[in-house]
Amino acid sequence: MSNAIHLAAKEIWRNKGRFFLFSLVIALITVLILFISALGEGLGAGNREYLQKLDAELIVYQATARLSIPSSRLERDKVRELRNVEGVQDVGPIGFAAASIPVNGDLLDISLIGVEPGLPGMPPALEGEPLRRRSSDDVLIDRTVALVTGAQPGDWLTFRSIQGSEEEFYRLQVVGITDSRKYSIRPSVFVPYVTWARIRPRALVGGGEDDLSSHIIAVKLKDPSQIEAVRRLIEAKVDDVQAVDRRTAYENTPGYSEQQTTLQTQNGFALLIGLLVIGGFFQIQTLQKVAQIGMLKAIGTPETLIAGALLIQIILINLAGVTIGGAASLGLTLFFPPNIPILFEPRSAMLAVGSILVMGPLGGLASIRYSLGIEPLTALGLSS
Q1: Residues 6+ positions from 13 with CB-CB distance below 8 Å
Q2: Same-domain check for residues 283 and 368
Q3: Which of 61, 257, 316, 325 is least enclosed, having the fewest CB within 10 Å?
């Protein structure tokens, strides 16, 4: 093994420029794969974050909505009925709308989410205070909104909402900041439900606080282990509703599954391209040193030593490229605006890096096999 390491290291050192350039090629492949993976995580989190972090075990939809939040409408009497179901601890209506915040001459698109203070659906305040009053002009913003706007608890923000065919602007005070809670790939702002009903966009001017129907209702259970039993009980006792767990809810948000499938396919093709590029490079390297390999065989060097040296060489170059690419990827993230949906999850990043580390030796197997088939006399041009 020591002889194989020495042989591999000696060749890398003597041709360090060539091997360094190829390490950079592997680094670029690493950056590509890591960013596709991070984009998949970021877009996925942008669709699921709020639903995934809900302080509730079940989410209730209108039965005919087919788990589509925009299509679901639940009247206030459903809240009372759900609260009376055995095993239910508390429930909270939740409404969703799109709005925007003027920021430095541009507009930051947000998800305007109506929640009942103190009930399931309202996120905790990590800074400042949570929402406390049902019809106040207070808002709780998520971390992304705070970073983009620079708002802090006590500041006032202007919200743009379309009422009929006209723009309307509302001034609301930030009382707290929560963690990232994106919905529909937009950062979220949480307002008391009555305020949400008043300022949310609508096609026709009118309605307002009297129209308190919600899109979904979050249900917190007394015993979370009884989720399936309570789910069936809800659907049996409350008319025209469908109850699902959080995972089922966010996986059925519009485009979520299709988006993730597309990005996973892109990631697979990137890995395949990387495998071919790495394999091609080491195959060319092997072809360029046929005479040297023939000489080693002619003086009695074992084939296991030659194969081991080539394998160690592949692993070292691959590891160097992945290290450079990983460091470059992390460095690039420092320059991305906070509203860009790029998210490096440790598990996904490690899986991507592990795939590339395995991909290098796999790509080099063809060159190792070719080197073992080299005939010393033929390689040296001495065959008859």
Answers
A1: none
A2: yes
A3: 257
Residue 242, SS3 per DSSP = strand
Tell me, what's the pLDDT at 381? Answer: 60
Q: Which amino acid is at 268?
A: G
Contact 139, 172 (CB under 8 A): yes
Q: In terms of residue numbers, what domain contains 171? A: 92-214
314 lies in some domain: yes
122: closest CA among 93, 149, 145, 84? Answer: 93
Hey, which residues does 112 pair with through a beta bridge? 97, 189
What are the tens digits of pLDDT across the range 36-67? 888 888 888 888 899 999 999 999 999 999 99
What is the gyration radius of the CA atoms in the chain, in angstroms?
29
Whether residue 347 is contained in a domain is answered as yes
Matching residue, tokens 């809800």: 234
Domain count, the chain: 2
Identify whether 53 is part of a domain. no
Count other Cβ atoms within 10 Å, centred on residue 66: 11
